[in-house]
Design goal:
six-stranded antiparallel β-sheet; elongated; 6 strands
């Protein structure tokens, strides 16, 4: 596979039984197939520690403003979005295969955002409550079928291709 950030050849690396592709000696980025990052995105998950020292060539430049091709899916451009509600780390994700590209240093930043899965879940729940509590209360007070309205809200915030996977991701 070819690095979507610098064009270097990616090197296969086994990290705690997970086969990752890293830009060793290039930009230092890491490719995670769908859901693999979830095994390394929290500080207590020691597997992620092994990725903190991926060798980077200091002369390699990366243009962060450029859209990047998915290294796995030919002809697919990845979408860029924030990894979490804190809007501190912007990552590249393939809408086709669900893989994630993290530039060097982004995994460390992600791991530093929340100390535990429970803390992250509490922040997400508080955000959801803040945004939708009034609407959900109004739906609760209405007569008639309610699941379709709640389902439409969930589909809006979390498209179905994520929702079905998210339920079994952890």
């Amino acid at each position: 596979m070819i690095c979507p950030a610098c064009g270097n050849s990616l090197t296969a690396m086994d990290v705690a039984g997970v086969q990752l592709d890293v830009c060793q000696g290039g930009c230092g980025g890491v490719w995670f197939d769908k859901h693999e990052v979830l095994k390394m995105d929290e500080p207590h998950e020691s597997a992620g520690d092994l990725l903190m020292g991926v060798e980077r060539n200091e002369t390699t430049t990366v243009d962060h403003s450029q859209k990047r091709p998915c290294p796995r899916c030919e002809g697919v451009t990845m979408m860029r979005h924030f990894y979490s509600l804190r809007h501190e780390v912007e990552i590249d994700e393939c809408a086709n295969c669900g893989g994630l590209w993290l530039d060097q240093g982004e995994l460390a930043m992600i791991r530093g955002q929340y100390s535990t899965f429970e803390e992250r879940t509490a922040v997400e729940q508080a955000c959801f409550d803040r945004i939708f509590s009034e609407e959900l209360a109004a739906i609760e007070n209405e007569e008639g079928p309610k699941p379709s309205k709640v389902w439409n809200i969930l589909k809006f915030i979390c498209p179905s291709y994520y929702l079905s996977d998210a339920l079994g991701a952890r």
